[in-house]
Amino acid sequence: MSRLIFVNLPVADLARSNAFYEAIGARKNEQFSDHTATCMVFSETISVMLLTHDKFRQFTPKAIADAKTTSEVLICLSADSREAVDDMTNKAGAAGGVVDPGPKQDYGFMYGRSFEDPDGHIWEIMWMDVAAAAEAMGGGATGA
């Protein structure tokens, strides 16, 4: 079985966040959604749980970071092409996100951009030609 990832994000306005994530291509999973949380699905293995602050506080004793002023995490999603990177980033901007809070990354074999969601969470969208990347990094070495 493939491992699944559920990224849990605190959000100030659940409805606004739902609309934003739908606009960039995620779909709502009603089975795991209610008035305090929404499960937004990017793929069979990647979901984002958008949680109201009250709901998020049930899972941690720590203060909720203000992602607009504090860096909490950088989330990176892969894309199938350079065009797909631009498409998702542009959709994020049209839906009210901040486009390219960090510099674009273009290394030929790898291309990435970023956006902030309405709560300030930064997402990187990255495309990579794996074969060209392996060649550029030392003749085909893979692994971490």
TrEMBL record:
Transmembrane segments: none annotated. This is VOC domain-containing protein. Residues 3-128 form the VOC domain. Gene3D superfamilies: 2,3-Dihydroxybiphenyl 1,2-Dioxygenase, domain 1 (3.10.180.10). It holds the Pfam family Glyoxalase.
